[in-house]
Amino acid sequence: MDHVVRTPTPPFATASGRLEVHQVPAWRDNLIWLLVDTATKEAAAIDGPPAADEVLAYCEARGLKLTAIFNTHTHHDHIGINQAFEQKGMLKDLRVVGAKKRADDVPGITEPVDDGDTLRFGDVNGKVMLTEGHIDGHVSYVFEDVVFCGDTLFAAGCGYLFDGPPAKMHESLKRLAALPPETRVCCAHEYTEDNLRFAWSVEPDNDALAERIRKVWALRAEGKCSVPSTIGEERASNPFLRFAQTTVQKAVADAFPDDDLSAPVDVFAATRRLKDRKDYRERPDHVLPLNE
Ligand SMILES: [Zn+2]
Known about the structure:
This protein is an alpha/beta fold. It is built from eight helices and 15 strands.
């Protein structure tokens, strides 16, 4: 399957160089992240579609040894990688971390985790956050200045509310947004251009957003990946974190004039519903701030 990312984001270090984060594009727009212990070359895959061969080839080419899978949630394009390793008879040798709440749905789980738990990898302690709203039992993993947030927070967007209710996603996003601004957001898909088209339709007076659109369009024109972003960028330009902005409030009030939008969670929920209508996809490119 052709991947929308032709040139992945190069590996980057965290935890004072004790860990590295690698990106392996898979399927059409999935991003598999590998957390690598730089001392032992052991790697943990964070989610993935059934793409064991790509991950194994990547590891072999770089002298890495895959020893773990950390699952954020149980959708097929995230636990498919567990099933792929199971078919190869290799899952039983892996450490598999997933949400305690959905332990029965995580193939090969060896380490069920819950909100606030510590997750050790190499000699670094990560932290587990329960970040529901997209699906029940969705967890995110924080390792120093990196968060693996699956389908909860996306670059310039957020996941669909399959299980909801909106209040759960709203709470999860607020908790993620409260991470330090330099935290790198390693979400699970390259959806950023579409997300930014919507963002611009609800907040066309945001200079940081205009700047981000120009930056992302330039990256994507070369087939490069726009992920990770940072929590600081998301706070400045992600409409699902910007429910307090008058411009966003006005855009959703215009779209849903009969709704009570007095609480922040109502503005968030209406923003999500407005994106789900997909009207913004009809807007021509010339409305975007690309030539300024
Ligand atoms: Zn999902």
